[in-house]
Amino acid sequence: MIEQSFSQKPWLNDIAGQLGQLLEQQRLPHGILFHGHPGSGTRDIGYWLSRQLLCTENGLWGPACGRCKSCSLLRAGNHPDLVMIESDKAHIGVDSVRKATRFLVNKAQLGQAKVVIIEQAEQMTEAAANALLKTLEEPTPFSFLFLISHDSDRLLPTIQSRCTRFDIRPPIGQGLKQSLGNSGLIDDYSNMSHLAQLQDADIEAEFVDFESLLTQWLQNSSDSEALALQLIEQPLALSWLTQHLTSAMRSSYRWHGIRKSPVIDALSQFEPQQLHTSIQLINTINQQLKQLPQANKKFMIESLVIDLVALIGNNAEKRPH
Ligand SMILES: [Zn+2]
User: Fold this and answer.
1) How does the average pLDDT of the chain come out, rounded?
2) Could you tell me which of 58, 63, 54, 59 has the C-alpha nearest to residue 19?
3) Tell me: the pLDDT tens digits for 121-155?
4) Are 31 and 134 found together in one domain?
5) Considering its fold, how many domains does the chain have in total?
6) How far apart are CA 28 and CA 9, in angstroms?
7) Given CB 3.0 to 4.6 Å as the disulfide criterion, which of 79, 100, 190, 263 pairs with 186?
8) Same domain, yes or no, for 304 and 209?
């Protein structure tokens, strides 16, 4: 029986179960593509599967013990029979792929299996992808290649067709609510972008802090500078602001199942059009921040807050004199 322990991402248990069966039947494919949004657990499941294969305690196909030398080395992040390729800057070049394919030809050092994990596989250049094809077509014994991708449409079709594909789809709304338990932060519209604050206690605390700061700002008991500072310093704050604005819009259209909170009450006093324009402003800023890595984030967010004051700020806000 394969140990299954995805308490933070319980939807992975199903896939782990399927992979566990393939292991027990010694039918695990040589090339696997794990596809899903960032945060969905593609990396977790690829790493989990590597652990099962690399553990030397229960044979190649047996479950990981968590105690042997192989398991400890893996935990420490320096297992000699595992190569992780991550995208540097903008792409994965042919050199790193060649290095990985050479590694797969050699004998394993600790047990039998050798594993290569390629993260953000869609970042492979065409030359890199072509270098990988041969390994996928003529695998050496006991070698395994796991591709992780958030955007598999950008993978060469020849690569896709030679991998067994597993799509990781976390539940949304009610389903997510059920699988994560009834956190006070979750409502019928919760989805992937809410996961961080639902799964990490520190981020949850910051989410709650941001929510109360935003409420105070809307009630005019906190100034715009404090809001701007939070939006600049907390990387998730812009998406949290969008979440609240979206919930308030749903609330003003009387959708059901929205989480009740003071911030939604405070936002619901505005016209849906004002909320909508605010969301659009944030989306524009987000796009600019993504496309222009050198963009002056501080300046852009300060301008955003000034625009927001005009849209949804409290009219009574004191003007500088
Ligand atoms: Zn072990």
Assistant:
1) 89
2) 63
3) 999 999 999 999 989 999 999 999 999 998 888 89
4) yes
5) 2
6) 23
7) 190
8) yes
The protein residues having their C-beta less than 5 angstroms from ligand 1 (an ion) are: 55, 57, 65, 68, 71
- Domain annotation covers residue 288: yes
**234 and 144 housed in the same domain:** no
Alpha carbon of 114 to ligand 1 centroid (Å): 15
CA dist 236 and 206 (Å) reads 9
Measure 56 CA to ligand 1 centroid, in angstroms: 5
pLDDT of 2 reads 52
User: How many whole angstroms from 62 Cα to the centroid of ligand 1?
Assistant: 10
Q: How far is the CA of 60 from the centre of ligand 1 (A)?
A: 11
Q: How far is the CA of 146 from the centre of ligand 1 (A)?
A: 20
For 64-78, the pLDDT digits (tens) are: 999 999 999 999 999
**Both 162 and 41 in a single domain?**
yes
- Residue 154 corresponds to which tokens in the numbers above? 């950008």
Q: What is the DSSP string of 109-122?
A: SSSS-EEEEETTGG
Q: How far is the CA of 78 from the centre of ligand 1 (A)?
A: 14
Report the CATH number at residue 22.
3.40.50.300
Domain coverage including residue 85: 12-167
In the block, residue with structure tokens 């501080």: 298
CATH of the domain at 202: 1.20.272
